[in-house]
Amino acid sequence: MDKRRESGAASLFAVIFSAMLLTILAAGFVKLMLKDQQQAINNDLSQSAYDAALAGVEDAKRVIRACQKGNASACDALEKKDCNSVRQSAVLGGAANAQETLVQTNSSNGRKFDQAYTCLKVSMDTEDFLYVGAENKVQLVPLRARGAFDKVVIEWFNKEDNANKNVALADVHNGDVGLPEKAAWNTQAPAVLRAQVITPGNNFTIDSLDSSSASQAVFLRPNGIVSGLPAVENVVHKGSLRRATDTPTTRNEPAGVLCSKDFAHPHGHSCRAVIELDEVSPEASANAFLAINHLYKGANVRVSVMKGTEQVMLYGAQPAVDSTGRANNLFRRVEARLRLGEDIWYPAGSVEVLNNLCKDFSLAGNIVEGGACDS
Questions:
Q1: In this structure, which of 30, 167, 177, 197 has its CB flanked by the most CB atoms within 10 Å?
Q2: Transmembrane stretches, by residue range (predicted)?
């Protein structure tokens, strides 16, 4: 056999296999490029759809604001809670029966990126008021409700507030209701809350807030922790609420709260307390508020109201918006809670007098003694 022919055949096979290998590698690179390109397109569309959904949230704010200013059609549209109820308000202009709303720009009128929000639902009724509280900052929670209520429920401290996501810290100075120095409070223990309930009724004066039960406060102090749910509900009875008086015997001792080691309360919180009140009517609830101050640390907080054992819906305290955005054929859905108006600055303490001011107490170490100032 001719060795030169054998050598030529081997070279031919080598060239063929090399070409096949290069083709496979090239096809793999092309596939990776196309996959990355598609992923980049999907990411852009996803972000565009998310932006369109946020545009729907902003339009919802406009309709809610119009209702607050007395626009009857806006208020009627919000009560319907339909996908196109915001369009039906006539606040935004355009066709009231449009199935979607294009997100407009100055040049393309929304068609360049094919962005729109398709379904926008607004609910003025919510079961709760949610917020993330900061240490030593007062959060004012409106308690305007659809029906009468006689209980305020406060839940706080979830897994997001704890470095150990699985369990709440057991060291909360079990059985003690005193307020230690900040350095003595474990950084992973639940926060102490000072809850001030303000329920002045339909008609009131500023003086009545200081001369009646319209403004009362309680310190909610975690002082025990159990697995699962506490056997007994943490209830602050009406007689336990305190307010300042002109007698030297007034005391506002913190109320001990048993917390759950494994965040077993229904909404994932460790601590839960129920504050009992005289019944607040729906009309009087328009002037009802809860001021919460966080001591030692901040926390995620959930506030709700009840009548007996029944849940009462809050109205307009923190409207819920469900917005679905679209970009081309990709959809994103956003659920948001809105705060109406600007945050209200609420002082942690203030003094206003017409005549003399007399306040007498002593502080030494961990002991506080009331004085006998009476003039």
A1: 197
A2: 12-34
